[in-house]
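ok trying this again, last paste got cut off
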Amino acid sequence: MSVSPVPPALPAADRAVALLRALGADGIAHPGGTLLVHLRRVQAQLAAWGARPALQLAGLCHAFYGTDGFPTALLPLDRRTELAAVIGTEAEAIVYLYAACDRRAAYPTLADPGGAVRDRFTGDARVPEPRPRRDLAELTAANELDLARVDPSFREQWGPGLLTLLTRLGPLLSRPARSACRNLLAPDPGRPRD
């Protein structure tokens, strides 16, 4: 199935939203609304943290191929070029890395310079360069914090484990991301939660 072409004159984020709508992301249930609403919040969070445009676009599109925690895919992997044509090859590579990441295998050592990331689609493992490693950590933080922010039961059940994970990934995270993790998952009892 091919989707209608997205007008090339629009900015990349608008083209991505048009593609997301064409593929039904605005009709897929997700904590806090629909998948599209979640993806837009993740993009906005990355923008608020000062992420570069490619990482913001990857945040908006991070679920295109499904993820280790959300199996619903909008595009099959043999159509990666369609997403790359809309958001660019750098952003699409981040989307693929995030989607392909075998979390159970990668997260314990992701902050280690030699930590490998296992591709859940191919079974291959590789050691990412520093920038993709940071991108994966930052996108993970934005995604998980969004879920914790909009779903109190998710935060109650998974918050302590997320705090452990995101603290471990702290060396890879931007200062604003680290601060957001602390504020949401380990707030100072005397300070109101964001």
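PB: full thing came through this time. The mean pLDDT is 92.
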